[in-house]
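Continuing the batch. This is chain 6 of the set; chains 1 through 5 are on the previous pages. Same settings as before, nothing changed between runs. Recording input and output for traceability.
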Amino acid sequence: MLQNKPIVFCNFILWLWRLDITNCAYTAIVNILKMKTKTYTISIKAAVEKVYDIMLGLTYKKTYQAWVSIFNPTSTFEGSWEKGSEIRFIGTDQKGQTSGMLSKIVENKPNEFVSILHYGIIKNDQEITQGAAVEQWAGFT
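Output for chain 6:
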């Protein structure tokens, strides 16, 4: 059954027929550094439960990988979407090194809301949780 109920995912606000995307994943870093905010809209005609499942890749991880491939064709995640869990948003850079974000799931209310705290980066296969590169955006959700 279709419902007009929002889902918030990493500052994504999903309405049944509308998806507003602001400052998520890789674009968050780029936009913060450039001090710009970009908003994208797409119409989705599907049940909230289906959109939630696809966006998080709960049934098939490849559905998550498909929509984040716009940031990096190798984008994926390692970890769990459960509240309190650590999760790594990663991909391979042009040099073949693993890069991405170290994050924690602050809240996850299925089919409604996901809050993610970004606390570090992964650069050249190394986890970095302190320093200028991290301080520019750490703490953003």
